[in-house]
Specification:
The chain contains 14 helices and no strands. The chain is mostly helical and about 400 residues long. It comes from Upupa epops.
Length: about 400
């Protein structure tokens, strides 16, 4: 699981709330994390591998949106690998982990492992948050025809730059001036928690707004493509809306427990004694959400592939096959049909206007296909309703 408590546990003089959750059935908790992360990793790989008897996913052309979806699907399994590694060492070498609690210990490797594994997990999941934010931005820009493959460079710079900067800044503020003096006050911990949860809250608040604006823009595009709003266009707009809803639903399910748990632990930290009887229910709720985090956080990778592509099946095809972009064959066949010159000169203007309309319509189809990438039925409806397909 991904929580700033992983970094605060590296402090020998950690606060009582962190001590409460990290010492609650650590063997069971690590086992839950390993099991959830392993299942998610295997199912994510299964989802992304090509399948027998299925044609490759249809895409009009390489797009920044499809690249972002792939990067999100990669960041989560890599973060899950960090969870598996950290939990395995925790279970397999309890004496090694026990040295983290030694205030004046001479062995620095337990602290190095603690800090390094925590940063690995936080960095990759934080990068996944930033990529998810970039996906919402890119979806809106694609519909507005203001994005393309060139923008992926800017997304890389923003995502990895902000993820590394916030992670390093939070860790530096937490451990300043040294591990032995961190967590002496909230002035060390609060900046670390802010840098950890800032991208999460950004996705939680801003992405729904961007998705809503994108859905409205898609509806306008579909209405203006042929001047009418048919049942196919309505269904396609609904499917894109459902796709965005699934993405946000997965995100909320996987990370809402983190926000609840952190709120409860911060409340306990403000109490003079967290072991008082009136706080029993709050302690129990914090421990329950702690275990829930260990289950849901690593499962985000697999659940996102379901939201992106749906269930792709079990039959894996490891043979390499050349993927053919259907739009190329359509364009070539259309070009072949239009090779005959017009016998009358005045038809040139009509031909040019149709060409411009066809280009605009294809750009609209391309933009919508990028948003519905991975949905076969949507791709087929776009193709059938396209003027190119109809020989317009």
């Amino acid at each position: 699981m991904a929580s700033p408590r992983l970094e605060t546990y590296c402090c020998p003089n950690r606060d009582a709330a962190t001590q409460l959750v990290m010492n609650f059935q650590p063997e069971v908790f690590c086992g839950v994390c390993i099991g959830s992360a392993s299942v998610s990793l295997l199912l994510t790989i299964l989802q992304l591998l090509p399948k027998k008897g299925q044609s490759p996913r249809k895409m009009p052309k390489a797009s920044s949106s499809s690249t972002i979806l792939l990067l999100i699907s990669i960041c989560d399994p890599l973060g899950g690998l960090g969870i598996i590694f950290r939990s395995s060492v925790w279970l397999g070498f309890p004496d090694f982990i026990a040295n983290i609690s030694v205030v004046n210990g001479t062995d620095v490797w337990p602290s190095v492992f603690c800090v390094g594994s925590a940063m690995w997990i936080q960095l990759l999941y934080s990068a996944g948050f930033w990529w998810l934010f970039c996906y919402a931005v890119d979806s809106y820009l694609v519909v507005r025809r203001s994005a393309g493959l060139s923008t992926i460079v800017l997304y890389h710079m923003m995502t990895w730059g902000l993820a590394v900067m916030l992670c390093v800044e939070g860790i530096a503020l937490l451990y300043y001036p040294s591990l032995s003096s961190c967590e002496n006050g909230l002035e060390h911990a609060v900046p670390h928690y802010v840098t950890t949860y800032a991208p999460l809250l950004l996705v939680l608040v801003v992405n729904p707004i961007l998705f809503r604006r994108t859905v409205s823009a898609v509806a306008s595009l579909l209405k203006g493509r042929q001047g009418i709003y048919t049942e196919n266009e309505r269904r396609l707009g609904t499917e894109i809306q459902i796709r965005f809803f699934k993405i946000m639903l997965v995100f909320i399910i996987c990370w809402l427990s983190n926000i609840i748990n952190e709120s409860l632990l911060f409340y306990l930290e403000l109490q003079p004694d967290i072991n008082e009887m009136p706080l029993k229910n709050i302690r129990s709720a914090a421990l329950i959400t702690w275990i829930v985090m260990g289950v849901l956080n690593p499962m985000q990778g697999f659940l996102f592939t379901l939201a992106f592509y749906g269930w792709t099946g079990w039959r894996v095809d490891l043979k390499w096959r050349k993927r053919e972009i259907p739009w190329e064959s359509m364009s070539s066949s259309t070009a072949g049909e239009n090779t005959y010159p017009s016998p009358v000169n005045y038809q040139n203007n009509i031909h040019e206007s149709k060409k411009i309309s066809t280009t605009d319509s294809q750009q609209t189809d391309d933009a919508i296909s990028m948003l519905s990438e991975g949905n076969t039925s949507s791709d087929e409806r776009i193709t059938r309703s396209s003027p190119i397909y109809q020989g317009w």
